[in-house]
Amino acid sequence: MRLYVIGAEGQVARSLREAATDAPGVVFGYGARPEVDLLQPDTLARAIDDFRPDIVINPAAYTAVDKAEAEPEQAFALNRDGARAAARIAAERGLPIIHLSTDYVFDGAKQGPYVESDAVAPQGVYGRSKLEGELAVAVANPRHIVLRTAWVYAPFGGNFVRTMLRLAAERDRLRVVDDQRGCPTYAPDIADAIIAVARRWADSGWSSQLAGVTHLAGPDALTWCGFAREIIAGSAARGGRSVPVDPISTADYPTPAARPANSQLSTVRLNSTFGVHLPPMTQSLANCLDRLLGNR
Ligand SMILES: NC(=O)C1=CN([C@@H]2O[C@H](COP(=O)(O)OP(=O)(O)OC[C@H]3O[C@@H](n4cnc5c(N)ncnc54)[C@H](O)[C@@H]3O)[C@@H](O)[C@H]2O)C=CC1
């Protein structure tokens, strides 16, 4: 099975690169800027023609949620138009595409986990651009799987876990939002899940039941404050500084982009359609902290 990944250094793309060393029977190709730039789709078309994959995977995105409010053109250029171009290039070559999207397509008003058929209502530019990307991918390529993930963290890249560890080293107390709830998702778990989804697809062949949106997120829902406390406790257990984490409200921490109060994702479809189950948050966070704090 040959998988072509757009991007190489993002949290998910780099995790796929790492997973490649432990994925028998899978040959990976990658395209990163400047050679492959989704804003110049010809570069992607050439790279795909060279590599000849069985499946294209698109984790590349404009992911700066707050900055997107000030530069919507850039967000839409990549998250909608770039996504459409990648799906079309795959479709023109008879290839399926696995595309990554976000929990921020929801408004957060629901009580409990969101399922794939729930109404979408993004609160900001980033969420709107990703939602329009989902729709554009579906129109451009009927053989698509959109995997909506959430609250992504990894031992590398810009993410909440690394920010909390840095702040804990600099400050005596942390104040973290306690009225937004979501599912932290470890990028290496996303990579394993993408490979499992691709294998399922390759082994049993395409069926239209696979198409559409599937939620791919960690099984545990927490608030940012709750997650921060887990991170600090895990860090302290590995010799890091232990600092108190005080709960604050979203109103106490205004940001340019509004975020959903609840974006917990149900993974029932991921489990039943693809047979994929992500590890518990405690296990994945421990793996991340072990890598970050040098315990392995
Ligand atoms: N980071 C998060 O918390 C969440 C991410 N997601 C989605 O998951 C996917 C993966 O996210 P991450 O790996 O965390 O993102 P990231 O921000 O770590 O990486 C983004 C990637 O996009 C690439 N990229 C940017 N502009 C490009 C261009 N013009 N051409 C080609 N590549 C370009 C970058 O080089 C980088 O590899 C994205 O679709 C994102 O929207 C969904 C929910 C939460």
Give an account of the 3D structure.
InterPro entries: dTDP_dehydrorham_reduct, NAD(P)-bd_dom_sf, RmlD-like-bd. It is an enzyme of class 1 (oxidoreductase). This is dTDP-4-dehydrorhamnose reductase. Belongs to the dTDP-4-dehydrorhamnose reductase family. By secondary structure, this protein is an alpha/beta fold. The chain has a domain at 2-154 and 185-218 and 263-279: Rossmann fold (3-Layer(aba) Sandwich). Helix content is 41%, strand content 16%. It has 9 helices and 12 strands. The chain has helices at 11-20, 41-51, 72-92, 125-140, 160-170, 187-204, 224-237, 268-274, 281-292, and strands spanning 2-6, 27-31, 55-58, 97-102, 144-149, 152-153, 174-177, 181-182, 185-186, 212-215, 222-223, 245-248. The strands form 4 sheets. It has a 6-stranded parallel beta sheet with strand order 2-1-3-4-5-10, with helices on both faces. A two-stranded parallel sheet has the order 6-9. Helix 5 packs across helix 7 (224-237). The model has no long low-confidence stretch (mean pLDDT 96). The protein binds 1,4-dihydronicotinamide adenine dinucleotide. 1,4-dihydronicotinamide adenine dinucleotide (NAI) binds next to helix 1 and strand 4.
Question: What attributes does this structure have?
Answer:
296 residues; globular; Rossmann fold; alpha/beta; six-stranded parallel β-sheet; binds 1,4-dihydronicotinamide adenine dinucleotide
